[in-house]
């Protein structure tokens, strides 16, 4: 079956952000010359969803629509599916397959840990117990999308020696960065590592840089540093490849759902045991049906 892949970026008013997505897409194409890859944006760019879907459908029997987006909120759950349905009406002979967004998983967590290590290096490797960590997301009205960031914070707490790990958001929801910095200073943190949970540069990344600069001036006795966004890390390309292979029916075991990241599942696999959802490590009584 002749297949096209449509990579859907968010789009930004800050042109360098759109340029980075284009560069990212070109690099991914070079890594996968066997695939026909098109690129479009949800907003703030020249090629938007309708045009991108039409381009991908030309001379194709199947189009795999792949959101280059970390968390599933309105764009992923409503806007992209709406445009796909309209494309199905325009191209009735083409099968449109909607692949999963990037999500919060072990690949993304590997990048989060790498960013924390990089920021700790900037701060000259201070004591993690006196170094607060803030994972800074975009913010959404979708509680599941916000919860994905909270999940990454919890995983980080489980796998590092940092005792104060918080989440903050740049907009839409709370808490905001300034309030969380104030809280961590009050708790006695002498260093704070801010980890932007973003894929590419854009207006919000530029805003974060200005915020950090002001906070450094506001708290001159506190060492505050921030990490880079995720975009060109190898794990992002790995996730995209997995999403495509799954959409093509070649990789059906990519998603592990709620057990993703479960150390008990990983231990069981190493010892050749199936993973049971009666998790003894949850210390919860069994309830009869």
Automatic annotation (TrEMBL):
Pfam families: CbiX (PF01903). Keywords: Lyase, Metal-binding. Residues 270-289 are annotated as: Disordered. The keyword Iron does not apply. Its EC number is 4.99.1.3. GO terms for molecular function: metal ion binding; sirohydrochlorin cobaltochelatase activity. It is an enzyme of class 4 (lyase). InterPro entries: CbiX-like, Sirohydro_Cobaltochel/CbiX. This is Sirohydrochlorin cobaltochelatase CbiX(Long). It comes from hydrothermal vent metagenome.
